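Dear colleague,

As promised, here are the two records you asked about, laid out in our usual form so they can be pasted straight into your sheet.

NAME FIELD: protein one
SEQUENCE, THEN STRUCTURE:
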Amino acid sequence: MKIAIVGAGFSGSYLAHQLHKKGHSITLFEKSRGVGGRMATRSMEQTKVNHGCNALQTKTEAFQSFCELMVQKNLLEKKDAHTYTASAMNTFLKYLSQNATLKTDTLIKKIVYKNNRYTLTDQNEVEHKDFEFLLLTLPAPQILNMDFELEEHLKEQLKTVQYESVATLVLTGKTLSELDKIQLSKINSLKKISLQNNNTYVIHMDKAFSNQHNHLNKNAITPYIVNEIQRVVPNFKLYNYNYFTHLWKYGFTSKPLNIPYVYNEKRNYAISADWLMGESVEDAFLSAKKLLEERF
């Protein structure tokens, strides 16, 4: 079966891997420049920076087994009994998606189902045709914003899903050692700060700050983060560092649907994502696993 998957985060990449193993032909569409979603990794001064999720926590035996398999393939490292990390978190997503036809920088704007086939139209008005099945792994608001015919009751369900945003500033450079992590940890609006590779700080702002500023683009939000840092480190100057800012508008699910997946047998599409069950990568895994077990 020829299957289109929209979204190349964990859910999309894992589904691509498993469905390829079942003999299906997979095309994976991603609006960004690479796979990863909130498990994104970016190169910066010859360093890999995990500016989204930088560790996986396991609660279920199934997800633990999956992570152990990734360790055996040298794609993840085991930190403790239930925590797994990697120097580049998107590496194992590249592995999972390697057998799919990957179309990056491709934002799907419109989806039409006609004569038992799907046609997907991207931001450049290019049509991708003749798919027999459609899988959506995007955040609920992005699904609602697409030109795609959904049942009214499903639209209403998707509208109930709520998210918390996360604004992130990444700093690196020769003067990084002059920054005191203890002082930075006193930032009033801080969610978490991590030191990666001994030369990069990843600063995640808390939900109150991030939600307040999530209407701004990443460039416009930067001065507000700098202002928060200068409250505790008055001599902080952004121009002393190499940096980038990212806004995870749909960073964490605060109100999920509490169902494992959405499946429409009549129109041959399904939705699988973390926000259906919770907020974690494990929730994304369990959603995809349940869908695969029961429908494929």
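NAME FIELD: protein two
SEQUENCE, THEN STRUCTURE:
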Amino acid sequence: VGRSGHRYGGVSRGVIIPVLIDEPLEALVIAKKALKEELEKIKIHKEALDVLAHQLVGFILDGVVRPEIDSLLAAIKRAYPYSTLTQEQLNRVVDFLENLGFLRRLPSGVLSVRKRAWEYYYEQLSTIPDVKRFKVKCLVDGRTVGELDESFLSTFGFEGVKFVMGGKAWIIVSINLKKGEVEVEPANDPIAAVPAWEGELIPVPYEVAVEVGRLRRLIAKAIASGRGFDEILERAKPVKLPLNALEDVARNLEYFLKRGVKVPSDKHVLVEVGGGYAVIHCCFGNLVNRALAKLISILLTAELGVRVNVKVDAYRILVIFPTATPHNAIKTVLERIKEMKGEDVKELVKAALRNSPELMWRFVNVAKRFGLLEKKASLSRREVEKLMSSFRLTPVYEEALREVLLEDIDLENLTRIVDRVKKGEISVTFLYHSSLEGFSPLAKECLELYGNLPAKTTAQEPTILKTFEERLRNTLVRLVCICCGWSTLKYVKSLEGSVKCGSCGSRLVGIVRPEEGKVVKVVKKVMQRRRLTKEEKKIWDTLKLAASLLASYGYDAALAFATRGVGVKTAARILSTPYMTRDDLLKRLIEAEKQYLRTKPYWGG
């Protein structure tokens, strides 16, 4: 649904196509709220320290306020978001700007700007982050499989991390920050892979999710009574909810009624456990569920002594246990949460946020807005972790945490929900399964989306090898005869038979990259018995070895030379080590290319 023609009084038009089970109800709730002109609550950023830092420098550059702490504080507090700002907070920001080299505090207490302040002020005029996109390339076939946001790489981006993109699991092999590329390979074990984000998705508000839960209750009541859905369709007006969409939702809820289990709703939390997973059905929206997931994760980690993975959406939390985890662990943790005080809940969630993806991404952007990082800087996860550790006691970290608490999680509604569970207003029950097949349709949808079940995503090795070979076969190479200097361009797939010179018929034909045309000049210089330079001698020796390998190993040598990062010495080592089948050779070539991609960023020149 787009904008209303960028004009007041215009109408936004669009078609909503539900894909997931709860989406018809979610669309209905949002449409009704829109027709009633109900808006989401406005979140006011109070005492934003990065904006404060920028405005401080602006005040001094403009000269509209006397550059002393008392005068500056009085002027700043006139703005509602900073009406409660303290002198201590202001001084901390001033000290930090002084350390960054933007301000100078004179002995008289007057503040003055330094040369770098001008650049900082005009580069940071917007608080909207510039998000760089990275191309994701499969090293097996060289194709681009998608794009990743800088936000993903700042939080999850390091070699060996598994993530899901396009319904498949991938492993990061290398990250080239300068080129803006990520090389990946298919993952054979997709468990605990991270879903690839594309920017910040708009979260489902608490109020919407709770209403969806209430509609589930009404549908379950209608099914149980056999009255049909007339009452619900009447409640939906003036929104036209198709009956078949409602019937689809009902079919998925019948699972619970047939087993005598209460439907998960706004007043009932159901926990399904089995097969190394727990699906917690909680209709509280993305921000509340994210906060609850942080709390569950930190308590489960303490209970089990090992880290557990959690995935979240607006209606469920998926917990992925390590193998052989006792199923009663989740029940123990939820019982502990039920007995906790509101302040304890908040403090534990804050502790769980440390080094969380949300905080790391916010920290990077706040650091840029403070001028601590260049605007176009791209950092790996390890670099972000190191930076956060170094600046944990600064206004940068404080501001990043404030933003997470306001924008990314909802602690207030979480504490209310815990209190309602204590009072019995919200019930919690458990449903145990011996296998994944026993899970409800609502839970299975969650497992398929976030659990990355092996049966659906496991990459088959023969397919990978075949695709990799096909990429090599379609690689263009240059053939150069070391006897007469004849040269031509050929695809590797045309070299399966005996390779001979097209001019003199010699089998001593070297193979090089297509762009290496200067090799021909070196050959002709040799034929003319002219003296070679040191660099030319190296080229000649390399070409002779390449010709020897092609004559000895034929098509297999051509495959090796078509592999990125495999030079003549590496090719000689790989080919000279005995291998039983061509698949064995292809596996070695894949590993050689991965090694090249991992080490390439550290090469000089």
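A couple of things worth noting about protein two: The first strand starts at residue 103 and ends at 105. Residues 463-602 form one domain.

Best,
R.
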